[in-house]
Amino acid sequence: MPINAPTEAQEQRDLFRWAAYQRGIYPELQLMYHIPNEGKRTVYGGARMKAEGLRPGVPDICLPVARGPYHALYIEMKRTKKGRVSEAQQGWIAALTRAGNRAVVCYGWEAAREEIMDYLRMGA
User: Fold this and answer.
1) Residue 2 falls inside a structural domain
2) Is residue 106 part of a domain?
3) What are the residues whose beta carbons fall under 8 Å from the beta carbon of 116, sequence distance 6 or more?
4) Sheet with 33-34, side-by-side order of all strands
């Protein structure tokens, strides 16, 4: 019987759970947050959120801490199986990179954890 891969939401919850445990070592992780751009909405709710600044394709997670040559770290989280990067997401990743940020796609929370650790080890 095949094992189902965790959903993107489950992967993200696991990442934030890990980050909460690491705050004693890396206090910067308390600044990491989720950007809620996904999900199903009513037509009215979607229009309201667009008017409030919702932008399709913005990465899921931001760590607004400068490291090395970067201003911040953005992560587009994908599930380990069947995760697909949209054209809008690719555009945002490219634009954020041009603006001096590190913007990456991570397949699974463990890949995101490694990316965050590498980023934090760069030094300020």
Assistant:
1) no
2) yes
3) 19, 29, 32, 63, 73, 75
4) 33-34, 61-63, 73-78, 102-107
Q: pLDDT digit of tens for each residue in the chain (124 aa)? A: 345 778 889 999 999 999 999 999 999 999 999 998 766 667 776 677 778 777 889 999 999 999 999 999 999 999 988 889 999 999 999 999 999 999 999 999 999 999 999 999 997 6
Pairing of β 102-107 and β 73-78: parallel
CATH, residue 102: 3.40.1350.10
Tokens, residue 11? 């992967």
Q: Which of 81, 84, 66 is nearest to 122 (CA)?
A: 66
Bridge partners for 106 per DSSP = 77
Assess if residue 1 is contained within a domain.
Answer: no
Q: What total of structural domains would you count in the chain?
A: 1
Q: In this structure, is residue 3 part of a structural domain?
A: no
Cα-Cα-Cα-Cα dihedral of 65, 35, 54, 7, to 10°?
A: 150
